[in-house]
Each structure stands twice: as C-alpha cells, then as structure tokens.
Amino acid sequence: MKQSPLRGILKPHIVVIWIFLLSLPVWLIAIGGYYSLVTQVLILGLAATALNFLLGFTGVLSFGHAAYFGLGAYGCGLTIKYLLPSSSLGILVGVLVGTVAAAIIGPLIVRLRGVYFAMVTIAFGQVFYFIAFRWNTVTGGDDGLGGFERQPIQLAGFSIDIAHNQMLFYYFVLLFFGLAAGAMGILLRSPLGRAQLAIRENERRARFLGLAIERHIWLAWVISCGFTSLAGALYALLNNFADPRLLYWSFSGDLVIMTVLGGMRSFWGPLLGAALFVVLRDTISSHTENWMSFIGLFFVLVVLFFPRGILGMLQRKKGA
Amino acid sequence: MTQLILFNVFNGLIIGAFYALMALGLSLILNLSGVINFSHGGFLTLGGYLAFTIEPWVGFWGALLIAPVLTAILGCVIEPLLIRRLYGRDPLYSLLLTFGLAFMFEDLTRLIWGAQGLPLTVPAALAQPLSPTLFFLTGYRLFMVAVVAAAVIALFLVLRYTRLGLRIRAGTFDLETVSVLGVNIRVLRLMNFGLGIYLAGLAGVLAAGMLGLLPTLGSSLIMPSFVAIIVGGLGSLPGTLLGGLLIGTASGLTTVFFPSASEAVIYVIMGLVLMIRPRGLLGEEGRL
Q: Residue A159 carries which DSSP code?
C-alpha cells in the first residue's frame, strides 16, 4: 500500500493548529500574553518535538538533549559575536555544530538501550557544559555569552527587521518551526519513520527482518539533535544571550518533562507540553522563591498521574 | 613537582572513593530495581546536613554513626510512597520522578538550612597534617579513605555472606524466580533501597567534613557517579568501585597538568571506555 507523504498532513486538527499559530499575534495582547513568552514556547516546543522524534517515535530514551540545544545556542551566538553579524549564518553554524557533535557521539551510544542510553547521553552532555563553563575568555564562562544581537535578515534586497520588531521575529521562528515540524512529519511517514516505529515496537523482530537497527537509531538521533540545535540557535537569537545552564543536565530533564506532559505518542503533544511547562514555570517563579520545589513536585505528579500526557489521555478516552 | 603530583593523585583517590561510595549505592538500587535514582545526591546532601544538625549533641563520631541511619530511614519512607510505583515501568518515569525529587531535596535543604555554606567540625585529632613533608596528608583524609574502605568491605561481606546479600544478588539476576521461591521482594527492594541510601548518607557526612555543606553538594557529585557506573560496567559492583577510583585519580592527575579540564576528563574516559569496551570495564556481556 503506497501512501502519499502529504497524506495526513492536511488533517483538520493540523489546520486548526496552524490557524492558531498564525493568528496568535492578532489576539495575543488582548489575552495578556507577550511575545517573548510565546516565542519561547514555540522554540522550546520545537526542541521537545525534536526530542520526541527520538523518544516517542523511536523509543530511545535520551536524557541529554540539552547539550545539543546549548551547542546550537553557543554556535549561533559565537558566530554572530566573533565571525559575522548575521542571524542566518548564526543559525546555520549553530545547527551544524550541534548536528556534527551528535553525529560523532552517535556511534558510541547506538548500541546502548534504556537506562544505559539515558545515563550515557546525559553524561556526555556534561562535557559541553564544562567546556562552556571553563573556557571563560571565549564563552563568558558562568556569566554566559552576551554581547551579540540578532540582526535584520537581508532577503532579495529587502531588510526584514526581526531585531526590533517582535512580531516579525515570532513569524521568523514560526517559519523555522513549520519547516522543521513539516520535515519531521514527512520523515515519520517515510521508510525511515516506519523503521523507527518498528524499532520502538519490537526491536528484535525488526532486526530479524533485516533492518539495520544501529544505523536507523543513529540517523534518528542525529536528526533529532539537529532540530534541537536549531531550536537552541533560535533561543540564543531570542534572548541575545547563551546561558551555560542550557547545556546542563537539568535542562534535559525540562525537555523530557515537556514531551511527556504533552504526550509522547502524539506529534503535537510536545508543543502543548512546552506551552504548559513554560507558562507554569513563569507563573510559579513570579510568585515564590522556592519554585524549584514546585517544579520538582510537578515532575512527581506528572509521573504518578499523567504518565501518558494530556494528548495521550484524550486519545485514550476517544479510543475507549 | 613530585609533591604536587602526589598531592593531586591522592586527592583524586579520595574524591574517587566518594564517587565510588555514592555510585555503589546507585548501582545497588539500579541492579535490583532498575531505577536510576537521580535523588541520590539529594540524600547525600541531607546526610551531611543531618550530621551538622545533630553534631552539637552527639559529637562528630555520633553524627557519623547516626546521620546515615536517619537518611536511610527517610529513604525507607520514600520508597513505599514513591519509588515503589516505578518498578516495572519504563525507565523514563523513574528518571523523571527521581529528577523531580532531586529538585525538591535541593530546594528544601536550602529552605531549612539556608543557601550559605556550613562547616561540619571534625575532631581536632583528625585535622592535623601527619608530617610537614607530606603536608597534604591530614588525618581526616586518611580517615575518610579508611571509612570508605571499611564501608566497601562491609558491603561486599554483607552481599557475600548474609541471607539478605544472597537474595539481593539473586534478585539482580532473576527477581521473578526469587519471588517465586518465597522471598518477599517488596521487603527485599525496600531493604536494598535503604542500604543504598545509607551509603549515600555516609558519603554525605564524610563529604561535609572535607568540603563543607552546600545545598548543591549532591547534584555536583551525581554525574561523576553515573560515569563511575558506566566506566566500571553496568551490573558489576566491583566495576563501580574501580570506575570511581579510576575517574577520581584521572581527574586529580589532570588537575596538575591542565586544571580547567579536570571535570571534563572523566567524560573523555567514559567515551574511550565506550569505544573500546561498550559494556564497561568489568561489565558482563549482554547486560546493557
């Protein structure tokens, strides 16, 4: 049975999601939202969606995605600061750095599974954290990397001022989100995506069918980390800043909880999870100094009561 | 120079002994229950702070004996409430839940004892350097190595010769069969968890005596313990011990020649081990 890769992309709920995202600036201010928050949601949603490409659709438990997010952010920031003040070049370099790092580390971890995979990915991420932390002269060390600003985009003679117009920057991020989400959606419907699902459901059987498991996991890992570093690069542009804590292992936990909260088995779950997580953290940290306790408690509650995530629960109700 | 190298190697060994002590507890829990306990560092910190709190009444020696037991008791309260619900589930959930616990531990220690560093007073007899030439060999450092060694030997003796140890080892291989043979595996996992947390508490008291107390003490020690387990080989307690000592020493040696890489070097070692021997130095085949 041959399926067109476009089938399933034009479903009603996807149209609704896109109308929502595209029209957001029209009514955002009216409901009391602000641009930096929704842009942040979109970026973290992209990172969580990319993580879910591996976690939910391949069944491989990475707990170290912060490293690639951070590499994207630092790659982008360092490029703009030291090399050439260009947002597009920054993004390009950020994505390249993150993807190449993932491609190199990949062969070391593709044989590992479950808890072991999680431990190794999280531990490897720490290398980049310590590099950013220690290499003060270049990365700014503990203070983070500042001193760069996102630049207007030059396109066919026009200058698109994403640097000062927050709405334009939102659409700029949305464009990347759309391209990345579309690419991942199509990949999941391609033979690669089918192989990923087969590995998730029954690795041994997939192996007996002659599937090159390690190569497929490596590929899914690199793609996932590549899109995560894209999100990181956009994050650096959003804040005009790269923080070493983006590379730290606790941020990996944040990305995983966003994914789980929204629903790992659905494509759009992580975006929803990211929105809820960001809004929640924003609210809690503006009310109490002890927000860490509340976020920690939130992790515990999600695991105990919402392990399938919000979309997972809705789908289950519909199915029942 | 020799002095400097000796100092740093010895320092590294001590740090490695810490990592090993913490990693052994993590390993125990992981091997039997399949749970990676991110909150292990939180228990460690708590052990140190409890020692600080009870020291005025019971003295250093009393604190060294009592604080780890109190920590273990708390572990035995948390296990049935939270950890037990994770057994048999996707490891993802155990990572997330204990991750959240670690956050709560850190924040609550900060709330109760404050964010500033606190010192744990060690007996004057232990604080003296042993000789002027080997100035770095304070009694406390030697004492720490001795306590870690004693704890490790005791642990291996318990696992080797007691009924509980036998059951833990058997359960590591095949928990279902152990259960069918009439062992209450709920209790077994509880005791095992308590044992692991006891080691974390002990490591916490020792660490507090050397490094002082900070709410972030545990979270800075947890990653190296992971590396110790991976380098040593999943499922092998001697491997974990070896891994801890190895990365500690390597980190100490790097401090001499390239100080800013002293933290990163242990991850490089992990990468090398994974490249050459993916199951870890003493890991068994097929237990990935």
A: E
Q: CA B41 to CA A125: how far, in whole Å?
A: 19
How many CA atoms does the CB half-sphere of A244 hold within 13 Å?
A: 18
What SS3 state is found at B239?
helix
Percent of chain A with pLDDT over 70: 96
Residue of B nearest to A302 (CA): B97
Asked if A165 contacts A25 with a C-beta cutoff of 8 angstroms, the reply is no
Please tell me the distance from the alpha carbon of residue A125 to that of residue B140, in angstroms, as a whole number: 34
Q: Supply the DSSP string of B86-143, one letter for each residue.
A: GTTS-HHHHHHHHHHHHHHHHHHHHHHH-SS-BPPP--HHHHSBS-STTTT-BHHHHH
Are A120 and B274 spatial neighbours (Cβ–Cβ below 8 Å)?
yes
Domain ranges of chain A: 35-251
Q: Which residues are CB-neighbours of A192 under 8 A, at least 6 positions away?
A: A216, A219, A220
Contact B101 A296 (CB under 8 A): yes
Q: Are B206 and B148 in contact (CB under 8 A)?
A: yes
Cβ pair A292:B92 closer than 8 A: no
Which of the four pLDDT bands, split at 50, 70 and 90, describes residue B272? Answer: confident
Indicate if the pLDDT at residue A46 is higher than 90: yes
- Is A212 strand, coil or helix? coil
Record the pTM. Answer: 0.88
- The string of DSSP codes covering A265-280 is TSSSHHHHHHHHHHHH
B2-114+134-276 architecture in CATH?
Orthogonal Bundle (1.10)
Chain B residue numbers touching A122 (CB-CB < 8 A) = 223, 226
Tokens 């996992």 sit on residue: B189
Backbone torsions φ then ψ of A113, nearest 5 degrees: -135, 160
